[in-house]
Design goal:
This protein is mainly alpha-helical and 160 residues long. The chain is built from eight helices and two strands; from the N terminus they run H-H-H-H-H-H-E-E-H-H.
Length: 160
Amino acid sequence: MINNKLREKLLQMEELDQSIRKCGKYSSNVDKNNFLELKKILKKYGWPTYNLVGKKASNAAWLIAQHSDYDIIFQEKCLKLMKKAVNENQADKRLLVYLIDRVLVNNKKKQLYGTQFYTNRKGQFVPRPIKDIKNLDKRRKGMNLESFLKYKKIMNKVHH
């Protein structure tokens, strides 16, 4: 049974997260407040699964976790909970990949799937270091992702 109150709360948090990013008025306060709210949600309900809040709101929880960069321990907890939910078909496998890479990058490690990019000193939008680049597309395919080359083109379009 869907918890509509929780579903609405997560969707509102996502809307706020995206609105500050789209209008160029980024606010770490929004990320902090969303993070604190998600922390309470996880404590009370565990990971917001499809059965609990529906796909859209479950994906919203992922987005909040993804943008909680200042608390890597919290991101790692989210990753663990989300992995379990994915194994039970209760969260998005493709989104999990982004959180895996984000946590690795935030821990100063090489990413596995090549999802995390940054602007280097030359002003180029490039991927953060990737582990075992030779098998990157094999790993991406195993998680239902497009080829890295295709993804890189998409990222460069979005960034410019």
